[in-house]
Give the backbone structure.
Amino acid sequence: MASVNQSQIPSKSVSMSLSDDDGVQRRKGDYHSNLWDDDFIQSLSTPYGALCYRERVERLVGEVKEIFNSLTLTPFNDLIQRLSMVDTVERLGIDRHFKNEIKSVLDYVYSYWNEKGIGCGRESGVIDLNSTALGFRTLRLHGYPVSSDVLKVFKDPNGQFASCASNQTEGEIRVVLNLFRASLVTFPGEKVMEEAEIFCTTYLKEALKTGSISNESLSREIEYVLEYRWLTNFPRLEARNYIEVFGNDTNPSLETRTKNEKLSELAKLEFNIFHSLQQKELKQVSRWWKDSGFSELKFTRHRHVEFYTLASCIATEPKHSAFRLGFAKLCYLGIVLDDIYDTFGTMDELELFTAAIKRWDPSATDCLPQYMKGVYMVFYNCVNEMATEAEKTQGRDTLSYARNTWEAVFDAFLEEAKWISSGYIPTFEEYLENGKVSFGYRAATLQPILTLDVPLPLHILREIDFPSRLNDLASSILRLRGDVCGYKAERSRGEEASSISCYMKDNGGATEEDALNHIDSMIEEKIKELNWEFLKAESNVPIPSKKHAFDILRAFYHLYKYRDGFSIANNETKNLVMRTVLEPVPF
């Protein structure tokens, strides 16, 4: 299909005004209103867009590269010193500047890796749990083939990790913290990782409870890692929190203090300069929302700011603006359409809208009710615009591919609408197969990742997108987790079909608790499988090609950590917006 000429597409939607008494009986979701007034968003300002701050960053990057190359190393500490430096720049959110240095360090460490782990240095006479745990985690996250069996070496006959089973000194607590962080990046069948996670969780919670930790920054770091673990701890959120606790070592050497000061200043400047870019982009998203007439839609969840926040928490390179803007708009449109199909639209309207989507022509709106005309045109424009952006980076037209993806979503939406209308409860398998599509993970991921400067030829794309195992696992996890968080609210709106109700129907006598336990177990195992699909060393698809698709799963999953954060966005989700987008890091 030929690319669409954007000049022929209306840039502004048809009016979306609705009448509350249009004579049609409609259900509504009773969602809270938009939290972010456009006037407030447009009033945001920051000084960090000034050239002087970017120039200071350039100087600091050069100085930190010198630090990488001039660490005080001996044959007895070189491995842990190098690993700690990599771990620090990654957690501070400044690693994009040091990709060559990080690759050099990891190749060096891996050259000394063996089935028993590593010591603190290349000539250390004994293996070291801290060095091995940190090395294992970092190497695995970068795609090196390392086995979790290496951790078995450190267990005593009682199943405890012997070097730190009874001690709670600050040094040993840090060892356990690194072991805990390593244990979270687990693959299927890795029993030792599960054992390490259980041991470390108990140990760290006890250390917090007994007041064994005099260093407040270490306590906060532990609380944060226990809270967000790995899957829900995406890059910008981690950077924000680690910046606040970094560099508060007890009695550091002059060399360490100087290094930490430079790293801290660079991290804060990097965070705040990107914050200035976030403000510009967020203003665009908010103005698009307002000018398109969405503020007049009273039945839906207005989460455009929240979706932009997710996008900017996972795509933190300044050059990926098209990803952030496109993701925010597509996801917002997805949630509006979800609310139309789940609650507001009548079956006749939904049939017409689905048919209009498949025609893919502005004239298809002639048969739609007024509120649907506007939604259709904004959606039509957005998908076409994203295809144009993707053509710039991928060198080929992807509109037909994107349309097919969205058509599958609308078919799944319509199927669920029929279930709601008839009160039908499908089998668990039937529900999940449809629900994996209707969640919209694939549609939300496809076009944004195609705008990145990462080549995604069709044979690579098929290992990330449908029908890949990665896409299937991510879609399943999100559908199941979304049901766990939202099934009660959906049931109160007359939406009976969920993975919980379907499991109970398939398994006569099963209670709601049985269903939830079964689904939680499914999610846990699928997350391990997903980790494997993302990080496996023998993959034909490099980790950078999969990273944003994986991080989109992490972002969505984050909003389900406590509740349905898409529907109830005035608690943890609001805090995420404040800490990662609206508030700069103080100096």
